[in-house]
């Protein structure tokens, strides 16, 4: 298989087009293209090794490197033994969270970076959700708002339902990139021990603003949804800066479990 020049190391000044991709990466890209072409879904087995060797025209070592790379990216699982082999999986935001946290660690970026990104993104996400969210997704959001209010006295329930509210809106925006980015940001935060706590007054305030955001989204009011979300993220950031400034200033660290 002929190697083609392709950028592999992005930099602040742009991609380095002078370095060719390794054959194993080119084969990995072709395997993914073939998965899409065949219409494979999660749980499907890929062709046996001898057929893949013939199809891609590479050696066993190169093919196995390609498959290991795709396994690392969450696109495959490699089942050992008879009847095993590569099995198609659904990648999630975990690898994106790990990659972002690694990049941010090298930039010595603090956790406040996440809040700044959320402040920039989430009002626009809420606006899109008000325009696009399906009836099924709206019902999930409604149930989440109810669960947040009823579980607000339990710290773990409150935290989980509060985060899920924002994730549901991100995915309900109809833009998968927003969904994955938000899941990745939550993954980065989940990998940290920041010691952030919310007293009853703050939890009650969060329940109320979530209910108002839900009402704006379900009422198909994009402007109100965006304005309420902007206010919510601003209030949350002010609270964190006032009570947990040290936690926000902590540098992000790479977490493979993101």
Automatic annotation (TrEMBL):
SMART domains: FCD, HTH_GNTR. Residues 21-91 form the HTH gntR-type domain. It holds the Pfam family FCD. Signal peptide: none annotated. Gene3D superfamilies: GntR ligand-binding domain-like, Winged helix-like DNA-binding domain superfamily/Winged helix DNA-binding domain. InterPro entries: GntR_C, TF_FadR/GntR_C, Tscrpt_reg_HTH_GntR, WH-like_DNA-bd_sf, WH_DNA-bd_sf. The keyword DNA-binding applies. SUPFAM superfamilies: GntR ligand-binding domain-like, Winged helix' DNA-binding domain. Residues 1-20 are annotated as: Disordered. Keywords: DNA-binding, Transcription, Transcription regulation. PROSITE patterns: HTH_GNTR (PS50949). This is FadR/GntR family transcriptional regulator. It comes from Dietzia aerolata.
């Amino acid at each position: 298989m002929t190697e083609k020049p392709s950028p592999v190391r992005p930099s602040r000044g742009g991609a380095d087009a002078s370095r060719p991709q390794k054959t194993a990466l080119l084969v990995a890209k072709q395997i993914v293209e073939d998965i899409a072409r065949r219409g494979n879904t999660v749980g499907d087995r890929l062709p046996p090794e001898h057929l893949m060797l013939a199809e891609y025209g590479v050696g066993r070592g190169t093919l196995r490197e390609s498959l290991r790379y795709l396994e690392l990216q969450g696109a495959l699982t490699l089942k050992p033994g008879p009847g095993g082999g590569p099995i198609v999986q659904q990648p999630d935001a975990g690898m994106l969270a790990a990659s972002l946290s690694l990049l941010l660690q090298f930039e010595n970026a603090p956790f406040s970076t996440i809040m700044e990104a959320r402040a920039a993104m989430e009002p626009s996400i809420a606006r899109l959700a008000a325009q696009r969210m399906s009836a099924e997704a709206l019902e999930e959001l409604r149930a989440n708002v109810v669960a947040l209010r009823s579980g607000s006295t339990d710290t773990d329930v409150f935290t989980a339902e509060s985060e899920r509210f924002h994730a549901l809106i991100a995915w309900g925006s109809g833009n998968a990139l927003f969904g994955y980015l938000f899941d990745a940001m939550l993954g980065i935060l989940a990998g940290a021990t920041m010691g952030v706590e919310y007293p009853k007054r703050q939890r009650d305030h969060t329940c109320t603003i979530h209910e108002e955001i839900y009402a704006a989204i379900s009422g198909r009011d994009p402007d109100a949804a965006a304005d309420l979300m902007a206010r919510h993220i601003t209030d949350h950031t002010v609270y964190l800066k006032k009570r947990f400034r040290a936690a926000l200033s902590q540098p992000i660290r790479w977490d493979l479990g993101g």
